[in-house]
Amino acid sequence: MSAELDQLYQTIILEHSHKRSGEASQDVSSAGERSAVSHQYNPTCGDEITVRVTVTGGETPTVEAVEWNGEGCSISMAATSVLAETAPGLSLPELDTLIEHFRDMLRSRGQVTPDEEILGDAAAFAGVSKFVARVKCAMLSWVAVEDAVKHAASKTV
Question: Alpha carbon of 25 to those of 35, 46, 69, 86, 129: distances in Å?
Fold first, then answer.
């Protein structure tokens, strides 16, 4: 990765860890008829995330909103913010593709070049893959969203 690209990625992570997209000012632990909640905890780092995902029904279910509350390291908070900004408007198959690309990138130990067309700002976490202990930090909210979407989608059928 070039030094300029590495600097850009660091900037994205820092910005999202401080100015958090989707962070709710109220508790998100209750779900409505088109939403579901997932709580995830990373005992290694102490990161803790609760996400609520709202899905629209219809022929092609779509993510309407991702709201969250949590505490944790800057990687975890930034990854949650990026996902909360990216997911709304995606169909569930598009979200699955996004999550799988993110997961593959993080598990690659730096061997997979991120596809910025698919990942957008989430490509900024490519460097995290070189630090195995930090992969769980970046994935925590993505796993929570994946879990919540499964439950929310079943409510919209």
Answer: 17, 21, 8, 19, 31
17 near 9, Cβ under 8 Å?
no
Note the pTM of the prediction, 2 decimals. Answer: 0.86
Buried b / exposed e across 26-51, counting CB within 10 Å, b at 16+? eebeebeebbbbbebebeebebbbbb
Element (H, E) at 83: helix 74-86
Q: Kindly write down the DSSP assignment for every residue of 115-126, as one continuous string.
A: -HHHHGGGGGGG
Token pair for 8 = 């850009």
Distance separating alpha carbons of residues 19 and 21, to the nearest angstrom: 7
The larger pLDDT score, comparing residue 13 to residue 112, is at 112
pLDDT digits (tens, 9 = 90+) for 65-112: 999 999 988 899 999 999 999 999 999 999 999 999 999 999 998 888
Helix (H, G, I), strand (E, B) or coil at 105: helix
Residues 6 or more apart whose CB falls under 8 angstroms from that of 137 comprise 42, 45, 47, 72, 73, 75, 76, 79, 128
What span, in angstroms and rounded, lies between the C-alpha atoms of 23 and 70? 8
